[in-house]
From TrEMBL:
Keywords: Glycosyltransferase, Transferase. InterPro entries: Glyco_trans_2-like (IPR001173), Nucleotide-diphossugar_trans (IPR029044). Gene3D superfamilies: Spore Coat Polysaccharide Biosynthesis Protein SpsA, Chain A (3.90.550.10). SUPFAM superfamilies: Nucleotide-diphospho-sugar transferases. This is Glycosyltransferase family 2. It comes from Bifidobacterium pseudolongum subsp. globosum. One of its GO terms (molecular function) is glycosyltransferase activity. Pfam families: Glycos_transf_2. It comes from the Bacteria.
Length: 331
């Protein structure tokens, strides 16, 4: 009998305890035939064979591959998946009870189901609703694609969604392995080009657990280049679309420029002095100012609008304070 769903879990330096927490949440799903495909992106530091016998309600496959990034790991998972539907789960996150049952109920004749999710950070647990969840309007594919470009909509997230595996494989919609940032938005955007109908629910289907071991506790000297490469790829994705005007890609850029400010220029671990940060700040402005000018600023939250305004007016000291506050929040 065919499984109801394949769940692909890429694992990179995730502890056995955290991975087992994730698997337990999958194992707790009710009355579902679930195929779990674990792809270790680099050899784990613990025994993996026991995982298959410890979760007997699940059909668990696992592969260990040389470290090549999350996109490669997910593509390996897709190549092994055999179910009608597929979902992606990060190893340090969890599924709420009845998540998959909720997805199956709303999916019906759709090829994409989208749900609400919990954002967990420390003791905070906030329920985030997807765009259109409380609306009776028909969600069109171009509407959904446009809103991938906007901040905080949840449209571009990978993991609060269920996908048709046939649509992915028949149309060869795989992850771009040159991307290590925003690869999820790129995948979702391209997947939407082969979708006929979307179903949306305001019921929670995922628990996103903010990892304190984030970009603020380390420094990636290639972070800015990785972000800008992802932005260029999205520009290519939407270039053939007549339904998305330039202000949307400018908004997408602007959101990611804020990430560069926080995680790169004002990253407390980069070891830069004030002069170096100031020069990088000005260089980023000259490189991206046209995107800032033409973005949909009203689509941003008030804190993000203040950050954009500060950057636009070259208020270096204020931008540094804003980034410091943000780093404190997420660290």
């Amino acid at each position: 009998m065919k499984n109801d769903i394949s769940i692909i879990i890429p694992v990179y330096k995730t502890s056995e305890t955290i991975l087992r927490r994730c698997l337990k949440s999958v194992d707790n799903q009710s009355n579902m035939r679930i195929e779990v495909i674990i792809v270790f992106d680099g050899a784990p530091q613990y025994e993996t064979s026991q995982l298959q016998s410890d979760y007997r309600n699940l059909k668990i496959l696992y592969r260990v591959v040389d470290h090549a990034g999350v996109s490669h790991a997910r593509n390996i998972g897709l190549s092994l998946a055999t179910s009608k539907y597929v979902m992606f789960v990060d190893a340090d996150d969890m599924l709420p009870p009845y998540a998959i049952e909720t997805f199956r109920t709303v999916m019906k004749d759709s090829q994409l189901a989208v749900g609400a999710f919990y954002k967990v950070q420390g003791k905070s647990r906030e329920l985030m609703h997807p765009l259109y969840a409380s609306s009776e309007m028909v969600v069109t594919i171009p509407d959904f694609q446009r809103n991938i470009m906007l901040p905080d909509t949840g449209n571009g997230l990978l993991w609060n969604k269920m996908y048709s595996l046939d649509r992915i494989k028949d149309n060869e919609i795989y992850f771009d392995e040159s991307l290590s940032i925003a690869e999820d938005s790129d995948f979702v955007y391209r997947y939407l080009s082969v979708v006929d109908k979307i179903s949306i629910t305001d019921k929670p289907v995922y628990e996103y657990i903010r990892n304190p071991d984030s970009a603020v506790t380390s420094f990636d000297k290639d972070y800015e280049n990785k972000v800008l490469h992802s932005m260029k790829k999205m520009e290519i994705d939407i270039a053939s679309s007549t339904d998305i005007d330039n202000s949307y890609i400018c908004t997408y850029y602007t959101f990611h420029i804020l990430l560069i400010l926080v995680h790169y220029i004002f990253n407390p671990c980069n070891g830069w002095g004030r002069k170096k940060r100031y020069n990088e700040y000005n260089r980023l402005w000259e490189m991206t100012k046209e995107y800032i000018y033409n973005s949909k600023k009203r689509e941003f939250s008030i804190p993000k609008r203040i950050a954009i305004w500060s950057f636009r007016h070259h208020l270096f000291s204020l931008s540094r304070i804003i980034a410091w506050v943000r780093n404190r929040q997420i660290g």
